[in-house]
Write a structure and sequence with these properties.
Blueprint lengths: L17 E4 L2 H9 L4 H6 L4 E4 L1 H5 L2 H17 L7
Antiparallel strand pairs: 1-2
Length: about 80
């Protein structure tokens, strides 16, 4: 049995099992599909601290976000074409 996933966007005093650092613009590009997650990671644009195997567990989350993000962004009037 695994611990439930907890996401934190700022220090909360708890030492994380995994920390991922990337620029907001890069995340935006990944979620819009203009930047490949794999290329960004292996290109050194995404920094991880902790088990890479734990990071790989987030792959499905990124795939789902990639499907939803462009439409949500467009619905907010922030994107005209994707």
């Amino acid at each position: 049995r695994q611990k439930p996933l907890k996401l934190s966007f700022s220090p909360d005093g708890v030492k994380p099992d995994l920390a991922i650092r990337l620029d907001a613009g890069l995340l935006h590009g990944i979620l819009l599909g203009t930047v490949r997650l794999r290329d960004a990671y292996f290109g050194g644009q995404i920094k991880t601290k902790g088990s890479i195997f734990k990071a790989m567990k987030l792959a499905d989350l990124f795939r789902q976000a990639e499907k939803l993000y462009p439409d949500v962004f467009k619905d907010q009037g922030l994107l005209t074409d994707h």
